[in-house]
Every structure is written in structure tokens, then in C-alpha cells.
Amino acid sequence: MNPFAWHRAALERLLADRARLPHALLVHGPAGIGKVEFAHALAASILCESPLQGLACGKCPSCHWFSQGNHPDYREIVPEAAQDDEAGEGDAEPAKPEKAKSVVIKIDQVRAVADFIALSTHRAGYRVLVVHPAEAMNPGAANALLKTLEEPPPSTLIVLVSDRPARLLPTIRSRCRILALAVPPRDASLAWLREQGVGAPEAALAAAGGAPLAALEQSQAGEAELQRRLLAELAKPSGADALTFAATVDRESVERFIHWMQTWVHDLARVRLDGEPRHHGHLAQPLRARAKSADLEALFALDRELAEARALAAHPLNPRLLAEHLLMSYNRATSAHRP
Ligand SMILES: [Zn+2]
């Protein structure tokens, strides 16, 4: 539960004087900068049994429980819709149609932690409750929490996390110490996005208004969309529409375009050799259909061409023309001998 590099200083400041920790803390700031992760790192550090420079050591029993998600002195309240629904996964029975999950935090959820708040702590230390997004509390939930904030139990830290603190009850806000987290420094965000394997971090960060987690999420969504569109194009029985598709490939996406094309061509060659697809098993049918009319030698040549193109992809002269050329090579390689 390490904090993001851009939050370390704020976290250390907060933890420098443990005797003066507030009963309640409202962490707010723009969406997508890692406020929930900040709250988690804060909780882990407070619960840690041998903190290093105030921060969670990552090694003690308490840190272990926290990272496993079952620390007895930690609770988290989130809307039902945001809860990980892992139960039932792998179940052979078909999923029953579920009721739409609630996006608000309900009074029952706040009441359910009343015992947790009232009882003594398991580890004779602190106990931490994180609520996010705090503005999702409905009026009943907010009032129930307010009662707890009005009579703060000892050795308890309640952390509210919010993108929109103005939507909280003023009476709740006034009982919290306010901690505003800003958009992180650009360099720190870019370094982190590169670590996450984001292809064009500058563009992704700019598109997300400087919020690194939002940038990662959007870039992953864009990546999934590119992959889906490209594979659908390559699977077409009549061949890819090279001109139209290439017009959608730009400097930012060309490297990923080549990458996904490589995985498809590899699978095609494997299937052509009576093997199983390695990358796109869910597309085995269209792969088999395309493999029937593919020329193995031409696929290998295309694979070499793709590898060369990928080496140049960081600075292609013209991404659209490159994509067009590769798609035309693909069409030739896969229409060699129609059945
Ligand atoms: Zn620890």
C-alpha cells in the first residue's frame, strides 16, 4: 500500500504528528488523481505496527492483513455498485439477472459499521473507516454518519473522500479537517504513466486534464477500442478496408495498431499450421476462416514487415500511409488462394 510518489509529501506531513491526527478527515480534489489510494495509504500507515518514516512498512502482520483486505480494524463504505462482486465467479450456474446495483451509500451501510466503531480495537491501536465517494451518501446515511462525527470515538479516524465536497452536508464538512489534493506535477504523472505502459503519456495526460489515473483509464479504454475495431476489420471475409481503416490510425495509435496486427498474424500462422490461436482464442472461428485462404510464406513475410514497421513506429513519416501499406500486404497474404 505505497502512496503515489506525488502524494508522499502530503501523507508524511499528515502523519508527522500522530498525537494530533484529526477524528475525521475530508480528502478532496479533482477526479482521477488517486485520492482513494491516498486514503488507503494513510489507513495502512496508521494501522502499521512498525511504520518507516511514518509510512506503512509493508511487512508487519497489520500491513499484511491490510493488503489482503481483511484488517480487523479497517472498514470501507462504498456504494453497492462499486463493490467488487467476486462472489459467484466461476459458478457453473448461469448468473441470475441482478437488480441494478445502488450507486448511493445507504443508511444501512453506515449503521452496519456502528459496532465496528463502538467496540474496542482488535490490535489495541487505531481503527480507520474510509467512505468514498462521500458525496454518494444519501441523506439518511449522511445523518447517521454525522451522529458519529459529533461524538467521535477514541482512536478512530474517519476518512471521507470526495470529488465534489460541495455536495456534502455543511455540518459534515465542518466536523472534518479538510485536506485538498491538487493535480500532481506533470513530470511525476508522466513517469508513472510510462511505468504503466501507456504508449503516448503526454497526449493521454493532456486529454485527462492532468489527472494521471484518469489518463490511464482513458488510454486503456482507447486501447481496447482500437483492438476491437482492428480485429473486426482483419476478420472480414472480404479483407480489410485498408483505406478507410488506415485513415483512423494516427501518430498516437500506430504502434498499438502494429502490435495488435502482429498478434493477429501470429495467430493466423499458427492456425494455418493446424495449431491453436495463442492471443485471440475467442476469435478462433474467424481466424480459421481467414487462415484457409492465407499463404503461409506471405504471412511470414508480413510478420517480418510488421516487426520492421514496429521498430520505426516511434517516428513514422506518415502513420496513415504505413497502416494502409500494412493492411494491403495483409489482404494480399490472406487472399492468396481462395477456396
Ligand atoms: Zn507495517
Summarize this entry quickly.
By secondary structure, this protein is of the alpha/beta class. The chain has helices at 8-15, 35-47, 61-68, 107-112, 114-118, 139-150, 170-173, 186-195, 201-207, 212-235, 242-246, 254-272, 284-292, 296-312, 319-333; strands spanning 24-28, 74-77, 127-131, 156-162, 177-180. Helix 9 packs across helix 10 (212-235) and helix 12 (254-272) packs across helix 13 (284-292).
Features:
2 domains; 15 helices; binds zinc ion; Rossmann fold; alpha/beta; 7% strand; elongated; 339 residues; 5-stranded parallel β-sheet
Description:
The protein has 339 residues and is α/β, with parallel strands linked by helices. It has a five-stranded parallel sheet, with helices on one face. The protein folds into two domains: 5-180, 3-Layer(aba) Sandwich (Rossmann fold), CATH 3.40.50.300; 220-333. It contains 15 helices and five strands. The chain is elongated, with a radius of gyration of 26 Å. The site of zinc ion has 9 residues, from helix 3.
Going by CATH, what is the homologous superfamily of the largest domain?
Answer: P-loop containing nucleotide triphosphate hydrolases
Strands across the major sheet, in which order? 2-3-4-1-5
Oligomer: single chain
Helix content: 40-55%
Bound ions, cofactors and other small molecules, one mention each: zinc ion
Shape verdict: elongated
Strand segment count: 5
Largest sheet geometry? 5 strands, parallel
Query: Low-confidence parts, pLDDT < 50 over ≥5 residues?
Result: 85-97
* Number of separate helices: 15
- CATH architecture annotation of the largest domain: 3-Layer(aba) Sandwich
| Whole-number tally of structural domains | 2
| Average pLDDT | 90
Q: State the end-to-end CA separation.
A: 57 Å
Rg, Cα atoms, Å = 26 Å
- As a percent range, the share of strand residues is 5-15%
CATH classification, class level of the largest domain? Alpha Beta
